[in-house]
Amino acid sequence: MKNESKLLAGSLALFLTVNTYAKQTSIMLSVEEQRITEQHKYDATLGNTKKLSLFVQQWLLVKNYKQAKQLLKTEGTRLWSEIKSQVKSQRRYDDRPLYWQRLAIKAQIKKQPLKFTETELESLLEVFENVSRGYDDIDYRYNTAKQIFITGFDPFLLDKNIGQNNPSGLAALSLDDKVIELNGVKAEINAVIVPVRYEDFDIGEIESLLAPIYINGKVDLVSTVSMGREHFDLERFPGKRRSVTAPDNLNVLSGGTVKAPVISKLAGETLSGNEYVEFSLPVAAMQKAKGKFQVIDNVKVVTLEKGELQPKLLSELDGLTAVYGSGGGYLSNEISYRSIRLQNRLGTKVPTGHIHTPRIKEFDEETNKAIVNQIEEMLKQAIITL
Length: 386
Fold this sequence. Notes:
The chain is an alpha/beta fold. Helix content is 41%, strand content 16%. It has helices spanning 2-17, 31-34, 36-42, 49-60, 65-89, 96-111, 118-132, 167-175, 198-202, 205-215, 283-286, 331-346, 365-383; strands at residues 146-153, 179-182, 185-194, 221-227, 232-235, 241-242, 262-263, 265-266, 269-270, 295-298, 301-303, 307-309, 322-324, 352-357. α5 (65-89) packs antiparallel against α6 (96-111), α5 packs parallel to α7 and α10 (205-215) runs parallel beside α12 (331-346). It is globular and about 60 Å long.
């Protein structure tokens, strides 16, 4: 720890001696980044002081935008690959280091913005975000019969529990690049982790991420994944509107309530589409996955006009206003709605839907492993039906 502190001190000293970039005004940290102090009190091992110090040294030597962009691509790739390797080898079976180390690097960039304009800095931070989430690592490298794409989420509701992890993010780290097999059928999985931020959804991050997946025509199944309830829920009827009062990771509220649910945005426009859509996952096959938890075909929804319903057909929801989809009224429901909406609009037949995992209240490695293993079993059962 002393050596790491010396490295960081040396980096800061170097910053003060670089005339070109001295006397720069720092940029305000986001709510997510401001939580780093509290997180460090909770568990300092979730960070990596040595790697952060080395990054600061490299950052302070940057001369121009091109160099900065390349450094952040390299650093984002290192972070994604390193944490993924830790999870796969089970040296540390934990998604939280990726989240907190990403924020720590972003905070250092904002504290020492060099002479980049605000627009340039936003662009550079976006490059780092995307690479460190696996967005630039979507590549099917193996000659398998089937290909699967999944998404996970960052930890969330951290003001209630700063130590919270998210098994969906852990599943993405564990299963990315993995080849699974059942009854002689092999499938390669690619995975990414998306943010828990309303703004990112509103600007179209999910559509930008998934459109190439559908358009290239090579993927056989798309499943978004998030943390949910007591057991696994396969969410049959996602709803269009936001209705929860829970904040996102920037402490931004959805603007909706159960009495007045709101429609989200897409690139500045109100999101168009039906109030409800229906998934196309191979439910019966996925329910055969053995494990600790039940796998439920969840059809429950809540409508403004008729309250809670359990429809058998999507047509039963015609003319009704969505309050909760099967996946609720938060971003986990919304990523499901957006992915299915996009699939329908592009006219593809790729089975698409959402897996809600059991909820983790406190970090529990064995429960996390049980959850990820059962997700893998669900995907194995699915591939023989595709």
